[in-house]
Amino acid sequence: MQTWENSGEKFNPTQTAETEKLKSELLTLNMGPQHPATHGVLRVEIKTDSEVVAHAIPHIGYLHRCMEKHSENLDYRGIIPFVDRMDYLAAMNQEHTYVMAVESMLGTEVPRRAEYIRVLILELQRIASHLMAFGTYALDLGAFSPFLYAFDEREKILRLFEELSGARLLYNYIWIGGVWNDITSAQLYRVKEFCDHFEEELKKYDTLVSQNKIFRERTRHVGIMDEQMCYAYGATGPVLRGAGVKWDLRKVAPYSLYGELDFDVPVGDGDRDAMIGDCYSRYIVRMKEMTESVKIIRQILDGIESGPVIGKVPKVIKLPKGEVYMRTECPRGELGIHLVSDGGKTPYRLKVKSPCFTHTSMLPEIAPGQLIADFVASIGSIDIVLGEVDR
Amino acid sequence: MLSMDLEKLSSDINAKVSSANAKVVKPEEDGAGDSSILIEASSIKEVAQALLDSGVNVLQVISGVDYPDYLEVNYMFAKFDLANPGQFTLKLRVPDKANPSVESITSLYPAANWQERECYDMIGVTFNNHPDHRRILCPDDWEGFPLRKDYKVQDYYRGMVVNPDEKMNWADREFAKRQEEISKAQQEKSQD
Amino acid sequence: MSTNVETVSVKEYFRSIWQGVSSTAKGMWITFRYVWGNKPVTIEYPEVREVLPERARMRLFNDVDNCISCNMCAITCPVDCIYISSEKRAADQEVPKTDDGTPMRQVLTQYTIDTALCCYCGLCTTVCPTECLTHSNDYEFAQYTLGDMKYDYLSDDVRAWKQRIVGKEPVYRR
C-alpha cells in the first residue's frame, strides 16, 4: 500500500540544467467559466509551465445569487424552494438540513413514517447525485457511454421523485414537521424493483469503468488530498473518506433514523494500485456508497411504519430567539446551516456552509505539478456543484 | 449533536490565553438553540492556536452576523476525532462597525482563507495579515457589503449605471406598481 | 498519467498494455450488449408526448369561479408573482358559493399570475382553502414576450383553459 510519503519524489518539470535553459515565462490560461470540465461556471486561472500547472487560482461567484440575503426577507416555509436551488443535484439533502435546523429550534416532533420517507428519499437522492458524479467524471476522462447509463438510472429516481413531489429537480418536498405527500405502496414496490435492478447495474459500472485499466491509470496517484490536508481545509464527505478517514456524520452523530440502520462507511483503502487520497479513492468511495445506500433503502422498505406524514406545526412559523448550527451528511460532504433568529417570522441571518466551497478552496493546493489533463481529473473527482459554491 | 462541555472548554481557553476573557453564551430564557463561547476579538489568534494544540483540528465555517450595535463573527470549530468528536461555536464581537478588523487565522487553519474572504466580502470584516485579502463572490471593485442590514446597491459600477432605466422591463414595473396602489387603496378602504 | 516518476520494467509495461486492452474489451462488450434487449428510453417529442404524473407541478391554473379572494396565495408566494385584488360585495347582493360551499364574500377584480416569475414551488396551491388554485399538467406555454406570460385568469381566453387543460371536471390536487 502506497501513501503520500513513500510514493517517491514529486514530479518536478524543471529539474535538469537543460530544461532550466528552456524555461520561460509562465503562460496564463483561463479555464472556464464556460468549460465542460469545470461542472458549471467555475473559472480557474491556470499558470502553466508547458503542459504542467504551476499555479491554479479558482475564481468563483459567477452563479452568486445571494440566497442568504434573499432568505432574510422570506418566511421559514418560503426559504425551502431557495435552499433547493443551491445544490440542484441533491436538493432533498439540502432541504433536509435546513428543515432540521428549523425543527431543532421549534422543537417539532417528526412522525416516524415521515422520518422513514425522509431517509428513503435522502438515500435515493444520494444515489442520483453519485450517479451524476460518476457519469460526468467518466465523461471528463473521455468515456461517453457510462454517462448515458448513469443518466438512465438517475432518470428512474427522478421519475419517482416527480410522482412523489411533482417536480424533477427542485422538489420542495421535505417540509417543516414532516414531508408533503405520503408515499404509496405501489411506489415503495417500485423502489424495491429499482434496488434489485440497480445492484446488477452497479456491477456493470464496476466492470465498465472502475476496473478499466485506462481509467485507473488516469485517476490513480492524481490529485492527492491526504488526511492532514483534509483536516486543515475542513474537507468532508467523499473527499475526507477517500483520504482514509472513516468519518461519516450519519455514523458519528446519527440524526433522523440513521442510528437505527445498519450500514458501512466505505473509505479509500488504496486497493487496485491506488493511493489513499487520490482521485481514484474518491471515485471508488462514491461507488461503494451507492451500494450502502441501497442497503439502507432495503432496511427502510422492510421497516416502514404507517402513520401521519406531517407533525404539528404552527400555521405561522415564528422561531424563538437564538441560533443553531446544524449539519448533515450530503452527497458532496457536510452541509451546515447557521440559522440566527430574532424571534420574528423571517430569519435574522442564514449562513450556509457549503462542502463544495471548501473543496474548491483545496484546488490551489493540489494543482501545482499536475498536468492540465490531470487537473481536470482532480476537479471532477471532488464533484463540485457551482450552485452550492456560490449560493 | 456532538456538543462539548463548553464550561470546561472556556475555562481551558482562559487558562491558556489570559486576555481571551472567554465565557459561555447561552440562549435566552424564552429562546432556543445552541450555546457558544464568546471571546475578546483581539485574542482570536492566540485562542485559535490554543484550540489547535488541544486537538480541535477543523475549522468548518466563519459566519458573520450584522447586529445593530456590533458585528459578530462566528467560528464553527469541530473535532474530527472518531473516538471523541465534538463541535462548538466560537464568537467574537467587533463594536467598530465603520472599520472592523480581526486578526486572520489562516496561518493556523488554511480553511480560514476562503471563509475569511467570504466574511469580508459579505459582512465587511477586515482580516489583518490575510495572505490574499480580496473579495471572493462579488467582483473585486464592488462597493458595500451585501449582507449588512443597511446595504444599498451602488448607483454606478465602473462608470456604468446599475440597473439603467432603458434596460428595465417598464411594462412589468408599471404593472407591479399599479397593483401595489390598488391593493393599498383596498386595504385603506377595508380599514374604513 | 501519473505525476510521480515510476520505473516500469519491460514485463510490467507489456502487462499494463494487455490489461488496458482486455479491460477495455470487457467494457466494450457491456456496451455492445445494449444493441439488443434494451428498450429505447427517449421519446420523439412532438409526436409522442409523455404522460406526466398526477402531481406534476406545471402551469398554475386558478379556477376563478371558486376563488374566495383570501389573498393567502399572494402572501405565501416566495417570489411575489401573484397579483390579486378584490372588492367587498355590495350588501344587497346575493353571496354566491363555491363548489365546496364556502361563501364568496369578496368580488375578485383581478387575478394575475406572472408565470415568468413563478418558481413552481407549489406553496400557493397548498395554502389555498378552496383548492381552486392548482398546478395543471400543461407544460407547453412558450411565449414571444414577457408580457404574454402574465395570465389574467378573469379573461375569457384564459378561462377557456379550464376546458382545454383541466377538462370539464377540474382535478383538485394538493
Radius of gyration of chain C: 28 Å
What is the CATH class name of the domain at 79-317 in chain A?
Answer: Mainly Alpha
Q: Quick one: how many beta strands of chain A?
A: 8
Oligomer kind: heterotrimer
CATH topology heading of the domain at 60-166 in chain C: Alpha-Beta Plaits
Give the full name of the CATH homologous superfamily of the domain at 79-317 in chain A.
Answer: Cytochrome-c3 Hydrogenase, chain B
Q: Approximately how much beta-strand content do the residues of chain A carry?
A: 5-15%
Query: Which structural class best describes the helix and strand composition of chain A?
Result: alpha+beta
CATH classification class of the domain at 60-166 in chain C: Alpha Beta
Instruction: Note the total helix count of chain A.
Output: 16
Q: H/E order of the elements of chain C?
A: HEHEEHEEHH
* Beta-strand content estimate of chain C: 5-15%
Task: Specify the number of helices of chain C.
Answer: 5
The shape of chain C, in one word, is elongated
* Helix amount of chain A: 40-55%
* Order of neighbouring strands in the sheet with most strands of chain C: 2-3-5
Largest two-chain interface: A-B, 47 and 41 residues
Described by strand count, sense and barrel closure, the largest sheet of chain C is:
3 strands, antiparallel
**Averaged pLDDT of chain A, please?**
85
CATH overall fold name of the domain at 79-317 in chain A: Cytochrome-c3 Hydrogenase, chain B
Total number of β-strand segments of chain C? 5
How would you portray this structure in words?
- The complex is a heterotrimer of chains A (391), B (192) and C (174).
- With 391 residues, chain A is α+β, with helices and mostly antiparallel strands.
- Chain A has helices at 17-22, 67-71, 79-84, 91-106, 112-140, 145-165, 185-210, 213-219, 227-233, 237-242, 249-252, 279-303, 355-360, 363-366, 372-382, 386-390; strands at 27-31, 43-49, 52-59, 174-175, 178-179, 322-330, 333-341, 349-353.
- Helices cover 47% and strands 12% of the residues of chain A.
- In chain A, strands 1-2-3 form a three-stranded antiparallel sheet. In chain A, strands 6-7-8 form a three-stranded antiparallel sheet.
- Chain A is globular, with a radius of gyration of 22 Å.
- In chain A, 55% of the residues are buried.
- Chain B has one domain: Beta Polymerase, domain 2, CATH 3.30.460.
- Chain B has four helices and nine strands, in the order H-E-E-H-E-E-E-E-H-E-E-E-H.
- Chain B has helices spanning 6-16, 44-53, 112-122, 170-191, and strands spanning 23-25, 36-39, 58-66, 71-79, 86-94, 101-103, 126-128, 156-157, 160-161.
- The model of chain B has no long low-confidence stretch (mean pLDDT 83).
- Chain C is built from five helices and five strands; from the N terminus they run H-E-H-E-E-H-E-E-H-H.
- In chain C, the strands form two sheets. Chain C has a three-stranded antiparallel sheet with strand order 2-3-5, with no helix packed on it. In chain C, strands 1-4 form a two-stranded antiparallel ribbon.
- The chains are: A alpha+beta (391), B alpha/beta (192), C alpha+beta (174).
- Chains in contact: A-B, A-C, B-C.
- The interface between B and C is small, with 11 and 11 residues.
